[in-house]
Amino acid sequence: MQLEDLNIEFHALAGAIPAWRAQIGADRLQPVCAQVRESGGRLLALWGSDERANGQGFALHVALATHPGLLMLSLALDANQPAYPDISAIFPPAERMQRAAYDMLGLCAKDAVDQRKWIRHGCWPEGQFPLRKEFDFTQKMATGLDAYPFIPVLGDGVHEIPVGPVHAGTIEPGHFRFSIVGERVLRLEERLGYKHKGIEKLAETMDALQGAKLAGRVSGDATCAYAWAYAMALESMTGVTPPPRALLLRALLLERERIHNHLGDLGYLGNDVALSFGFAQFWILKEDVLRANGALFGHRYLMDRIIPGGVACDLPPQGKARLLAETEKLEQEIGTLRAIYDEHAGLQDRFLTTGRVSPDRAAKLGLTGLPGRASGQAWDLRAQYPCAPYNELDVRMATHRNGDVAARAIVRVEEVLESLRLTRLILDKLTEGPLTAPVPSAPAGAYGIGMVEGWRGEVLIGLQVGADNRIARMHPHDPSWQNWPVLEHAVIGNIVPDFPLINKSFNLSYTGQDL
Amino acid sequence: MYQILKQILKTGIKTEPHPVADDALRTAAQGLQAEILHVFGQALSIRHVDAGSCNGCELEIHALNNPYYNIEGLGIKFTASPRHADMLLVTGPVAKHMEVALKRTFDATPEPKFVVAIGDCGCTGGIFGESYASCGRVSNVIPVDVAVPGCPPTPIAIMQGILAAISAR
Ligand code: SF4
Question: Which of A123, A305, A512, B160 lies in disulfide reach of B96, CB 3.0 to 4.6 Å?
Fold first, then answer.
């Protein structure tokens, strides 16, 4: 698809990734989405903003991934009755995003089938909308209980298992409602939103530089991806290009984040099928990476190391040798452990065909990121829209077609190995130079987008800045938005005891979607 | 099997010496008696509750179980139910949507019990503070014995906090 095919007047957004923006009328939303969908495009994110202070109404923002780049569509909505046409029939992942846009701002997706609340539980009453400007961030309201109409499954022998929000393991809170017959799952319905802590509204009390720290805490395990996406958004609106050394270091940090998360997941996947050997081994490797992070960059998870304009840390002189030695050791150890996982009959028996999402279904439902690639969705921003320094690194994307737990494990192994290869390339290219470029105040009304391939998938930040460099709207988007609904499909027909394994193989963020 | 055994032998024992309690982390004078210590003996069961964290603190709680820190070697293990727990390890600012769940988990935990709040968010509300959606620090919702700052606190600091809660002064 070419942009011209859409017959819309786009203007290019400056910045590290190819992106265009256009204002469209409400009547054009569905046809444009359908056209993008037909040509293989995807919905990345959907959110709203309150523009009434600028003498307008509300706005709806829709981010689409297409072959040439990112398309940002904005719709002006009425101040009194903000409504827009439903696009969840075209892009299924839109459904929960639309429900959230209602809960947070009162924007209504006309004719959408599911109009239930999503993010709102009992902490603010119906008819109030936290992201409207008149809503006071600090107000304290009595917490009501959450009455949520789950969809019942009826029939002989069907019963329900409610799980959560407090789970049995050390994981984030959410509620899972299983309808089962015997041991088999007929249906899973998720209820999320427990971790909603007002991140988007909080951002509106900050200035554009402070927002970076908050962005890095939307989902702590992907802090580098969020911090980079935020920096990219701010840099795109202020016309800043970070120096080459800073960009290489950012990529180094982002790949280290991918490595430690994948190693941890590979260990837990072994643990979940009673191979605690795998847990012990992979977590030794993970801890070694974290310790090197602490020693070289000053933070085990690299929080606040990527900042607008560049990076807040440098690779110390002894660092290169240490990282090269670590890379070699990891390659060897992962080779050994991979062979053990491959040949372990008990593990393979649990992994193979479990929690399968076929490529066809993945494409229909918009599965993205790592689970997407394990189901044949060849999509990795580092390869698709390679921003500097990835444009010089030639990332080799890992994909698989089986879409089961085994495929998601294999993609993780291959991505770690690729990240190690990239680490070598980055270290090789790293030359001396400055670490930051000054970031001026953004012009009032500026609009920027940042997008980074984190270890889970693409992390997107939409940013609008008002007067005095204050944040007018910040929308962080986690790939978990797309993938949570697909998890409901992945468990159908599986046995209940395999749910923890399937869930772990997706390893989605709760906080990243609850905000 | 041979490969697994070979790898285990090659890896050896990675567990490091355990840290000692950090008394400075106690938030209040605990009425800690020998009796309570006697009840727990050498074994402690912990129920972790994520009340609204950014999930950064969870990463370090996971790390407690890795071979380097090997918290089970201290007789401390994580349990699936609050009814089996002696201690709640609570992370995050308490999201309003988790307030009821946290209170109920606390009520379901049998006496005597300890609560350790983890991370800057658990200690003060951290960057998220108090708002329409956040109750802020853990002690705004349930009583807290020990609070461990850090964003996130290191596994060693978390262990010191846990030990501070259960060791007599
Ligand atoms: S203390 Fe830091 S790491 Fe822990 S939940 Fe808060 S922001 Fe996240």
Answer: A123
Rounded distance, CA A111 to CA A175, Å?
A: 27
Across A111-235, the runs of DSSP E, i.e. the strands, are 158-163, 175-181, 184-191
Nearest CA to B145 out of B26, B20, B32 is that of B26
- How many domains does chain B contain in total? 1
pTM (2 d.p.): 0.94
Among residues B53, B24, B15, B21, the alpha carbon closest in space to that of B37 is found at B21
How many whole angstroms separate alpha carbon A400 and alpha carbon A505? 14
Burial group, residue A55, by CB count within 10 angstroms (0-12, 13-18, 19+) = exposed
Task: Give the separation between CA A33 and CA A22, rounded to whole angstroms.
Answer: 13
C-beta separation of A380 from A390 below 8 A? no
Which of chain A's residues have a Cβ under 8 Å away from the Cβ of B8?
277
- Could you please report the per-residue DSSP string of A7-68? ----EEEPSSS-EEEEEE-HHHHHHHHHHHHHTT-EEEEEEEEE-GGGTS-EEEEEEEE-SS
Count Cα atoms within 13 angstroms, Cβ side, for A178.
21
Give CA–CA dist A313/A250, Å, rounded: 10
Of B65, B68, B95, the CB nearest to A195: B95
Give pLDDT tens digits for B125-162. Answer: 999 999 999 999 999 999 999 999 999 999 999 988 98
Domain boundaries, chain A: 3-110, 198-240+446-478
DSSP assignment of B47-77: EEEESS--SHHHHHHHHTTSTTT-GGGGTEE
Structure confidence at residue B42 as a pLDDT band (50, 70, 90): low
Q: Which sign, positive or negative, has the C-alpha torsion A286, A292, A297, A299?
A: positive
Lookup result for tokens 């120096």 = A243
Residue B26, pLDDT > 80, answer: no
Q: Do residue B4 and residue A277 have CB atoms under 8 angstroms apart? A: yes
pLDDT digit string, tens, across residues A343-375: 999 999 999 999 999 999 999 999 999 999 999
CATH of the domain at B107: 3.40.50.12280
pLDDT of A241 higher than 90: yes
Q: Which among B89, B99, B92, B69 is positioned nearest to B151, based on CA atoms? A: B92
Coil vs helix vs strand at A450: strand
Question: In the prediction, which pLDDT does B32 show?
Answer: 40
Residues of A whose CB is below 8 A from B63: 283, 286-287, 290
Give the nearest chain B residue to A141 (CA atoms): B132
Structural domain of residue B55, as residue ranges?
A: 34-166
Q: Which of A104, A197, A276, A299 should be substituted to probe chain B, the one whose Cβ sees the most B Cβ atoms within 10 Å?
A: A197
Q: How many angstroms from the chain centroid is the CA of residue A50?
A: 24
> Which secondary structure element, helix H or strand E, spans residue B87, and what is its range?
strand B87-91
Mean pLDDT for the stretch of residues A413-428: 97
Handedness of CA A29, A30, A35, A37 (dihedral sign): positive
- Residues 6 or more apart whose Cβ sits within 8 Å of residue A325: none
pLDDT of residue B169: 39
Q: Spell out the alpha helix ranges (H) of chain B.
A: 2-11, 34-40, 56-63, 96-108, 119-124, 155-166
Fold type of domain A3-110: Beta Polymerase; domain 2 (3.30.460)
Q: Please report, for residues A240, A409, B16, B114, the alpha-carbon distance to residue B142 in angstroms, rounded to integers and kept in the order given.
A: 46, 40, 33, 11
Q: How many CB pairs under 8 A join A and B?
A: 166
Cβ neighbors of A444 (< 8 A, separation 6 or more) are: A465, A466, A467, A468
Q: What is the pLDDT of residues A257-305, one digit of tens each?
A: 999 999 999 999 999 999 999 999 999 999 999 999 999 999 999 999 9
